[in-house]
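[Q] Does anyone have a clean structure-token version of this?
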Amino acid sequence: MDFKQAYDRMRPEVSTLLLKRLNWPVEICDLLYEAWGQQHRWISWENETLSFPVHAPATPQGCPLAPLLLAVWTSAGARATHDDRCTLKVYMDDRTLHTCCWDAVMSQISRWEAWSLSVGLKEGPEKTKVIAKGKKHLDLLAKGPQSWIETDMRMLGAVTVSRKRAYHQVEKDRIDKAHLRAVLFRSVGLPWERALEAYKLFVLSVLNYGWLAQPPTQATADKFFSLFNQDGVSVGPTWSHNFPFFTANEDDPNGRSPKLPGTQNGWGHLGGCELSAGGPDSAESPRSVDSEGPFTRGFPDPTSIEEQKLAYCRSLEHQLEEGNKSLQQQNIERKKQLHEAAEQQKQALLLHMEQQVKMQEMALDEQTNHALMGLKKAALDQRAALEQQAASLTLEYQQRKMQEEFAATQAEMQRQYVDSATKLHSEVQQNQYESKSKMQREWERQLKERHEVLGPASMNMPPPMIPQAPVGTIASVGSMRHVPMPVRTVVPSSPSYSSCSVPVQTRPPQVASFRYA
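[A] Here you go.
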């Protein structure tokens, strides 16, 4: 993750307040606020400059305290967005985190965006990159935006390794830069000690940087070792375009004795070749043509020059051969790098295609899950409706069954009541008939007795009235009521009849009535 225009958005009043909270001297904080809060900048664009300056309260990027203040700001953000599931590393405005949980990645990114927005900073979403190692974690990358996903990531010049790969383009550029410097030092012809020091300072410092995730190959190390050896760096004639010129010799105060620049005892360089000028300490120095002449003293004769020219030609041929070998080796290395880059691109393309296939599979799985959920929901709805309909029909059946049972029970009770009433009515009629027969026999007996006592005149007396039970329709069980029957009095026709001097009241049988709710 990275900020956009971090220094321009760091407000001076907030920065000085943070320094005061860190127990910085108030005078220094006020001085910094006056310097940072009163800036005026001239806006320039495509060779056009605004005619008047614009007030720009911000932290100058070139200020020596600017990196310290940026570290204070980012440390505050790190404390505000702390998550135990992540390991966070902050360098300037670059933030790198490591975690095994995708939810922690999304949580950290959202937390940093919220914190940056709250303090006035701005995140660079196009700089947010996410890499994963292992198939398990590669599958999790499909959950995030595709603009975040990368196969390798560059952090402070070092390139990560999530899988076996060839050299990254950053590593290739660094190797090429170191190789160019090594070739340049080889062609200069420095002494061994100085060449070794220069090689360490300018070649190895570039070549050794950034190999954290994986080391360089043995072929790369052998190539650089072959460029640095005593035969190629300092010993023997080397290629040079500088031609010798003469200066006054310190041994000759009159300046008549020539001496090559940067030489001792008459030794100089002609085209990078060591020339012998007949120094006093040289046992093999050739004799000049005119050893007594002041103008040829110390100058090599044509024979020596020819010998040195032949040696120089041999050196040129040797360097040409070495250059051809180096170019051929470089061509082989570049072809190898080209194939490795093509293989890397192929692997990246395969990984990208696998990610696309995974995403499409996840999309299809999601669509299938949605369809299955819809199908299950429809089935559950239909089942619920079916169960509701079955319950309703069952309830209606139970109600109808209860009504049928109630009607059957009511009919049975009514039948039993009718049977009982009919039986009772038959018994009442039978009793009435028997009573009537008894009364008739009693009446005949009384008439017979009267006839015997009173004579034939007593035979004209009317017969006694016998109450009759009304023969009516038997009421149903639901509408039966208790209706009192009328009472009739039977009085004998002759009050002189001793056996019937007391009035006899007869009451017909009463049937109790019941009402069912």
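[Q] Thanks! Anything notable?
[A] The longest helix spans residues 302-453.
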